[in-house]
From TrEMBL:
<dbReference type="GO" id="GO:0005886">
    <property type="term" value="C:plasma membrane"/>
</dbReference>
<protein>
    <submittedName>
        <fullName>Diguanylate cyclase (GGDEF)-like protein</fullName>
    </submittedName>
</protein>
<feature type="transmembrane region" description="Helical">
    <location>
        <begin position="174"/>
        <end position="201"/>
    </location>
</feature>
<dbReference type="InterPro" id="IPR029787">
    <property type="entry name" value="Nucleotide_cyclase"/>
</dbReference>
<feature type="transmembrane region" description="Helical">
    <location>
        <begin position="142"/>
        <end position="162"/>
    </location>
</feature>
<feature type="transmembrane region" description="Helical">
    <location>
        <begin position="221"/>
        <end position="251"/>
    </location>
</feature>
<feature type="transmembrane region" description="Helical">
    <location>
        <begin position="33"/>
        <end position="56"/>
    </location>
</feature>
<dbReference type="InterPro" id="IPR000160">
    <property type="entry name" value="GGDEF_dom"/>
</dbReference>
<dbReference type="Pfam" id="PF00990">
    <property type="entry name" value="GGDEF"/>
</dbReference>
<keyword id="KW-0472">Membrane</keyword>
<keyword id="KW-1133">Transmembrane helix</keyword>
<dbReference type="GO" id="GO:0043709">
    <property type="term" value="P:cell adhesion involved in single-species biofilm formation"/>
</dbReference>
<feature type="transmembrane region" description="Helical">
    <location>
        <begin position="100"/>
        <end position="122"/>
    </location>
</feature>
<dbReference type="GO" id="GO:1902201">
    <property type="term" value="P:negative regulation of bacterial-type flagellum-dependent cell motility"/>
</dbReference>
<dbReference type="InterPro" id="IPR050469">
    <property type="entry name" value="Diguanylate_Cyclase"/>
</dbReference>
<feature type="domain" description="GGDEF">
    <location>
        <begin position="294"/>
        <end position="430"/>
    </location>
</feature>
<dbReference type="InterPro" id="IPR043128">
    <property type="entry name" value="Rev_trsase/Diguanyl_cyclase"/>
</dbReference>
Length: 430
């Protein structure tokens, strides 16, 4: 579990990997995450030992496992450039393509060999990260592999509950076999979401954060479908399994393109929409409001005395303050309201389908929440915090203040300057 990584510019030596357990990076994580990692790994190891005693694999099973491992490693190497860009663009845990091979293993292999397949694939990912000096903590690879092992066991259990013992039985059971595959896919999907996106992150606040967005779900479903086709090919005509790799690489690249499109509309520091992304979304919302004759509110939010924050605490601390304010604004509005960073310390909020009184109430709620913010300067390690923050907010309403985005922004900006000039930490309507 050592994940100290090599010194920048140096080659990877054994001494960089073999350190005492007390120096593992795992111990520097949150207590809940440490407990989750240890329990999950213990359960994965224990169930694998029991599985190995329960079913003894044959030579054919071992050959199938090795074939899936080779295919998985080959696909990972062919797609490593795309994966590297995906991680750089996304910056968060994301669905990878190993589900194709692990789910095929669920349908083809005894449980213990499925665990061996997962171990090989994730060991390859970990070693590749070390070799390329990416400094990925080793405990992440270990816990991710353990979670996938448990996910595979849950899916295999569901398959057995249907009375189906593998892909060969599926072909013999007709529609029952189809139902078994569907149930196994659903079990894999749900178990993976609950374990990885839920318990591992330990920070989700909504169903969307727990199960991911539609794009993530569709990618996971696509990989499971390809895993099913891989298992069918291995069971009927093994040579055809290589035909799974090209569409998998195309899918991988397609996911990257989508992530790049999303990244082009996001602000890097806050995760909000950038000016272009917010403007395009606001234009669409105003067009809809025109068709439905609904009022829509626009807020222009400016962080007061932000230069003093930078001068006092430094620009890195200023970035933390911007992110905290962005998160606070997002927490005070509805999930379908649009929040963007307009530039510098200014933010914009679009509130569709609400009356002016409600828009002003939301603005006051944001102003009050920001005034109570306390932002720890984590990297300083000296207990310093940023507090006494405040915002001035300008309010403009569609259609009374304007019918196009630029006109509404100008009106909200005018109201914002009135709030600034009258003492700051205020909400003013145009």
């Amino acid at each position: 579990m050592d994940d100290t990584g090599p010194v920048a510019g140096a080659s990877l030596h054994v001494r960089d990997l073999l350190v005492t357990p007390r120096r593992w990076t795992l111990w520097r994580q949150r207590p809940r995450l440490i407990a989750f990692c240890l329990v999950t790994e213990a359960v994965a190891i224990g169930t694998t030992v029991l599985a190995a005693e329960w079913v003894h694999p044959g030579v054919k099973d071992v050959l199938v496992m090795l074939a899936l491992a080779v295919l998985g490693i080959t696909q990972a190497e062919l797609g490593r450039q795309v994966e590297r860009v995906r991680r750089r663009v996304n910056g968060t845990p994301h669905i990878n393509m190993t589900s194709v091979w692990t789910f095929a293993g669920v349908l083809l292999l005894p449980p213990a060999l499925v665990a061996a397949l997962v171990a090989v694939l994730y060991a390859h990912l970990a070693l590749r990260s070390w070799y390329r000096l990416q400094r990925v903590p080793a405990f992440r690879s270990v816990i991710n592999g353990s979670v996938v092992v448990l996910t595979c066991y849950v899916a295999r259990l569901v398959l057995e509950l249907f009375g189906v013992h593998g892909i060969g039985d599926v072909l013999q059971h007709g529609w029952l076999g189809v139902a078994a595959i569907a149930g196994t896919v659903a079990a894999y999907f749900v178990a993976n979401a609950l374990l990885i996106l839920g318990a591992l992150n330990l920070t989700y606040r909504s169903i969307r954060e727990l199960f991911g967005g539609w794009a993530d779900n569709l990618v996971e479903l696509a990989t499971l479908c390809l895993g099913t086709l891989t298992a069918l090919a291995m069971a009927t005509q093994p040579v055809l399994v290589v035909m799974v790799v090209p569409p998998l690489l195309v899918l991988h690249r397609g996911v990257l393109v989508k992530q790049l499109e999303v990244a082009a509309t996001k602000d890097e520091k806050t995760g909000l929409f950038n000016t272009l992304g917010w403007h395009n979304l606001a234009t669409s919302e105003l067009a809809r409001a025109g068709r439905t004759n609904e009022t829509t509110g626009v807020l222009m939010v400016d962080l007061d005395h932000f230069k003093q924050v930078n001068d006092t605490y430094g620009h890195l601390a200023g970035d933390l303050a911007l992110k905290a304010v962005a998160d606070t604004i997002t927490a005070q509005v509805r999930s379908y309201d649009s929040v963007g960073r307009f530039g510098g310390e200014e933010f914009v909020v679009l509130l569709p389908g609400v009356a002016e009184s409600h828009v002003v109430a939301v603005a006051e709620r944001i102003r009050h929440a920001v005034s109570e913010l306390v932002v720890p300067v984590d990297f300083a390690d000296d207990g310093r915090v940023i507090k006494d923050l405040s915002v001035s907010i300008g309010v403009a309403m569609y259609p009374t203040a304007g019918t196009v985005v630029d006109r509404l922004l100008h009106a909200a900006d005018t109201a914002l300057y009135s709030a600034k000039n009258s003492g700051r930490n205020k909400v003013v309507s145009f």
